[in-house]
Amino acid sequence: MDTDLVLTIGIVLFVLSIPSLLAAWVEGRPPRLGAILVIVALGMVVGALWVKPGGYAFNQVPGVMIGVLSRLFQ
Predict the structure, then answer these.
(1) Using an 8 Å Cβ cutoff, are 51 and 3 in contact?
(2) Could you tell me which residues come within 8 angstroms of residue 31 by beta carbon, excluding any fewer than 6 positions away?
(3) Which region, left, alpha or beta, applies to residue 53 given φ > 0 means left and ψ of -120 to 50 means alpha?
(4) In angstroms, rounded to a whole number, what is the distance separating the alpha carbons of residues 57 and 59?
(5) pTM of this prediction?
(6) Which residues constitute the domain of residue 36?
(7) Nearest 5 degrees, angle CA 36-CA 37-CA 38?
C-alpha cells in the first residue's frame, strides 16, 4: 500500500474520531470507539512516516492529501 494513501487515511480517521470522542465525553460514557479510531489513525500516520524514506515534512502533507484525492477521482 502506498504511504501517501496510508497517511491520508490515518489523518481522515483521526479527524473522524473527534466527534465520537466529544459525544462520549458529553454523554458521560467511555469513549471506546473514539479511542480505537485514534489508536488506529496514529498507527497509520506513524507507520507511513516510518516506512517512507526521509519521512514527510509538515508542509508536504496538504499536497500529499490533494495528490491522493486527485488519484481517487481520476
Answers:
(1) yes
(2) 20, 21, 24, 25
(3) beta
(4) 5
(5) 0.89
(6) 3-72
(7) 90
Phi, psi of 17 (to 5 degrees): -80, -20
- Do residues 35 and 21 make contact, with C-beta atoms less than 8 angstroms apart? yes
Total number of domains constituting the chain? 1
How many helices (H) does the chain have, and how many strands (E)? 3, 0
Quote the cell numbers at residue 55.
519521512
Rounded to whole angstroms, the Cα distance separating 12 from 46 reads 14
Residues 13-54 have pLDDT tens digits of 999 999 999 999 999 999 999 999 999 999 999 999 999 888
